[in-house]
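Reviewers of the previous submission asked for a worked example of the structure-prediction workflow described in the proposal, so we include one complete record here. The input consisted solely of the amino acid sequence. No template or homolog information was supplied to the procedure at any stage.
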Amino acid sequence: MKKLALLLILASSAFAKFPDESDARIKFKHVKGLPTAKNLIALNAAKNFEGFDYDLTKGKIEAAMYNMKIDKVEELKQETLELLMRVSTVEKLNMDRSEPIAVEGLINEIKLIESQLENIDIDTINFEGLDLIKEQIENKTFDLEELLVEL
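From that input alone, the workflow returned the following structure tokens.
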């Protein structure tokens, strides 16, 4: 009970510290499209510093987000490669069986995801699109686990 009360106090104090849009010199609409509230808080906090350059700060945030997208794509490529290696191992184990399980479809679907990642345009893809690809990889991992149960 004490933990819940403490959590409520912390949450209410954090909410009270969030800047009101009417008080801000930088309106929230200027940073629309940035994915997190942390960016909004950072820009509104920075407005009070002398020599604050809104365009420079926005550019730094956009550059950081661009680098985050590149890192996310590289991470997804690595996960896809690992999944493909696991499927090929299952395929080799499957060859020894009298009634092999079809894994070609799963391999083709994973290669399609790999192709999507190779041809991705970092400038136009958003984080939601990357999350959808991540979800596809997780679904294929689940499909692989089901195949392993059948083996």
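The chain has two domains: 20-52, 62-151. We consider this example representative of the routine output the project will generate in years two and three.
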